[in-house]
Amino acid sequence: MSQSKKKFHYAWIILIGVALIVGLNKAGITTLGGLFLIPITKELGIGMGSLSLYFSIASIATMITLPIAGKVIAKYDVRVVLIIAMLLQGGGFAAFGLMNSVWGWYIFCIPMSVGSVFLTQIVGPVLVNNWFKKHNGLALGIISATGGIIGAILQPAAGNLIADQGWRNTYFILAGVVTIIVIPIIILTIRFAPKDKGLLPLGAEETPTEAHETTEVISGVSFANAKKSSAFVALFLFFFFITSISSFSQHFAAFAMDNGFTIQFAGNALGIMQIGLLVGAISFGILADKFGSKNTAIFAMLLGMVPVLMFLFNPTNPVLFMIGVGIFGFIIPSLSTLTPLLTSALFGKKDYAQIYSTAAIGLAIAGIVALPVYGYMFELTGSYFSSLIVLLVLFAANILLLIWAFAGRKKLVAAGLMEEEVITIKK
């Protein structure tokens, strides 16, 4: 490999492209749904639970798509797949602006969610796993941090747009902007694997074989063995609970307005949450590389209890509300940064894409259950108090699941199920 390639690896170009794709779609489309809930329910006379039910339908579409997505993105040209996904997500989101009935959200959230699976859940972990042998945590942290930077700009802007231009036009504007920026990024930067450019992953040690070949040793548990293990069950449940926790962020705008704050304040609060996400994304990536994904995840769960307690005891103080939202935003990257790293730490890289995409069904199931449950709990009780209690329980449960998962990994290793495979790369 040439000295120039050693100094600057194409993996960093991949990281920049993926970070922008994931960040724009998450911050500009996926995480903004909650900001529209109050304006839509007031204008169209739809109940909060009924409207937020579209999050469940979206999660069902996500759950069905996830196990297929890992295979599709590995089999077909990744750029074509991602462009189609962008058209589905952007088109579905824009269509919401044309709707007058809740059924519109129920229908168009399906193509939006199918596209989102590839753009916000699969492309980051899979391409980072393909291109980075080292600095995985940092790379995933940069992806989340980029979303935080973009979100800190777009989310307050979205709140102001809804106030000034109305929620319908805001759907159109955001969908158009994200689609126009993302498609050229996909075309210009994205490649599926290092072998597509005659490279090894960043940090891989070369073992010379012939003049134009090198080898890489990949170790891990096969999907067939992984899916039957207690470690997989624990990881699946961890995905379910951490997504249920993160899903509450979709209700922050409604939570803020329920406590007497304006929609502009709610948009600014979401911006503060994105700043917290930015700091957390970098922090969790570095902490995971230094202390391991397990210890970092346990730390994240303990820290996450702090803002929930703040919201329980003093939800109407604007300063404390902003601080609490910022801390909550800080722990959200534990979903996008730590779950891929936990998967790799538990099962290795052998069948990573299939194991991760299957375990990630827990993310989708959580969306089916958690998002509308928070909405219906609000309708029934008139507040988010009971939802906050649920969040505390979920944080505690996740700590126990992490301990169980890594105990299950030890059993896999003891049983000799951590296999090795030698891959030959032609240069």
Automatic annotation (TrEMBL):
Supply the Pfam families for this chain.
MFS_1
- Look up the record and report any one GO term of the cellular component aspect: plasma membrane
Domain Major facilitator superfamily (MFS) profile, first and last residues per copy: 11-411
Q: What is this protein called?
A: MFS transporter
Query: Record keywords: Membrane included?
Result: yes
Species of origin: Kurthia zopfii
Q: Out of the domains of life, which is the source?
A: Bacteria
InterPro entries found in the cross-reference section: MFS (IPR011701), MFS_dom (IPR020846), MFS_trans_sf (IPR036259), Proton-linked_MCT (IPR050327)
